[in-house]
Design goal:
The chain has 109 residues and is mostly helical. Helices cover 75% and strands 4% of the residues. The chain has three helices and two strands, in the order H-E-H-E-H. The chain has a two-stranded antiparallel ribbon with strand order 1-2.
Length: 109
């Protein structure tokens, strides 16, 4: 019974840490996208550039979440090569994190 409680506590701790890591990754990519959109105003289609920066950040945070979760609705798309490159880096990062989570889970069971 003690082992079961210890494993459950360890699993919950791992989920908390992975949730924090994923949150940091998604927010950091959203900040990257915001910086790119400030340097290149037409870097993303589907973003209204006449909005305040807070609203653009919220839209780019949404784009980052959609990209990280591999949903890819297509309502916001990168247009210029540097935006596409950062988007691909987020996709690769998401893939590595998801593979890590799955392998860690099956390694423990």
């Amino acid at each position: 019974m003690d082992t079961l409680i210890e494993n459950d506590h360890s699993f919950n701790h791992m989920l908390l840490i992975l949730g924090a890591i994923i949150t940091i990754i998604v927010i950091s990519f959203a900040i990257d996208y915001l910086c790119i959109s400030e340097i290149y105003p037409a870097a993303f289609s589907g973003i209204q550039y006449d909005q305040p920066m807070v609203f653009r950040f919220a839209n780019l945070l949404y784009f980052s979440i959609v990209t990280f979760t591999t949903v890819g609705y297509g309502d916001i798309t990168p247009v210029i090569p540097v935006a596409k490159l950062i988007t691909v880096l987020e996709m690769v990062t998401a893939f590595v994190v998801i593979v890590f989570i799955i392998s860690k889970y099956f390694k423990n069971n």
